[in-house]
Amino acid sequence: MTSEAPEVQAAAQPTGDVLRAEHIAKRFGAVTALTDVNLHLVRGEVLGLIGDNGAGKSTLVKIICGFHQPDAGRIIIGGEQVRLRSVDHARSLGIDVVYQDLALVNQLTVYHNMFLNRERVRWPLLSNKAMKRLARQYLAEMGVDIPSVETDVASLSGGQRQAIAVARSMFTEAKILLLDEPLAAMGAKEAALILDLIRDIKRRGDVSIIVIAHNYAQVLEICDRVNLLQHGEITLDRMARDTSVQELSDIVVEEYRRALQERHRPA
Amino acid sequence: MSEITQEQAGAVGPPAGAPPSGAWRGIRAGARFLARQREATIFVVAVALFLYFAVTNSSFTTQSNLVVLSQDIAPIIIIAIGEVLLLISGEIDLSVGFIYAFAPFLMSYMISYGVPVLPAILIGLLFGLVAGWFNGFLVVTLGLPSFIATLGTGFLLDGIMLITSHAEPVIPPASAAGAGKWLGSYSWSMIVWAVILLAIFHVVLTRTRWGLHTVAAGGNLLGAREAGINVARIKYGNFMITGLLGALVGLQISFQTNDIDPLAGGYQPMFYAVTAAVIGGTAMLGGSGTMIGALLGAIVLGLLTDGFGVIGISANALPAIFGGAIIVAMIANVQLSRLRESGRMR
How far is B124 from B122, CA to CA, in rounded Å? Predict the structure, then answer.
């Protein structure tokens, strides 16, 4: 019992940054996705990551979650530099991700998807009963309404699928949660459900979140801070209360105009 | 063919197990239950075929014929186990029949070099694993499409077998006869192996992480990777399981027929196994399939081969019947799954 106290103290980071990514670069063949990304995530905050299509947002997320390895730069988690070898490795360090494509398997049931690659097992067999029970409990806690955890995810709506993808990351030991476009292709009602989920996670306090999104109004609604990714670099870092939808879209549109002018400038 | 389908239609009622009172309701409930199962069509076909042959020819249900029937069915089942796993994970192995052909030769070479019987059999089986690993290497590590990669492996193995054996059949060494009985030459040994293996892999597919990750790899390859599943390991493993099972069947057949034949194996056992899997409901594009379906598919193929032989139909007509039966079973599968998806069967 007494041995637990120092551990809790050690877990509390003095710097306040749970994650730092420094000078991250990544190329795919001839395409440069990221040139020099510097990003930090403060404990307990929700950081919005915005930027035009192809700016490298998903690549950055996939580096932080261990799916891709960066060509250069370093990642510091909880004050320690780490080389993330795989998704499993990153997950063991408390980093979890909801991918843009959701990574759901249509042919599997809701509960198997929720526990994909972290199944409850009583070796050698799956503990389906335990997984069903937990899946029901988690979805109920989140207020997600699904006919049955035993249905295949193929038969669910877009919002329900998104909710399951978020739910499976929420109910892990994740300390850092990455959400890649959780609101893409959502109807208004479904988007509201997901925004509520993110607020819920935020209220729990001990999770820090990076959200990629296109809708600036929604970003400002749920995020504490906003980073803009352009040409493979973070070019803007503002507290959400210090900026506006107008400012953010002006920056992106101006950028677009400048690029257009340069292209049409006579040689 | 139309005669058979009419027979089927007449035979749909009984398997529902209708109680004497409210029989009609029982039959309808049974039909609804069957329609919801992916293996429903093929189950009905299997039962109907069995009844048809049993009724039309009394020698069909004699013990000696049932032994022959079981020996027709068993190799299809065992190879289909591997192909179901591969098809579900989005791959296929066309070379398994050549693994089947080479494994017993390898065993007999080893015994002629003075290797004791059991290690020689194990080397034959190990060869299946290695050949499966090689297929995995081509497909997973080098990124070749499995259709072409395993076709290449098949030709390669066929050539090696023909060169080393000078295309001459040999008789399994007498010293191996004891072990051979348990593997294949007792009347029922092959079907017992088949049923036990099928039961084991049914559990592997439906109740273990391996099975779940096999479905995930075939259902959503990128998603499975993103979830951190080691998809390469799953595919390598399934190729190796298929290779091992192919080698096992090759050894069994050589003992059962007391002949190691360079013409054994080839494409036919593989196509029978893939056909059994697919008419049993396994998706050719990955993501779904069942061992029970493959079992029923193998039974149907075995019944067709054996049954029409017993009732004395011309051997020339058999392929036409076979082809027609496969197409009809597949049409029924596709139509039923459309009905299921549209929700009318729920």
Answer: 5
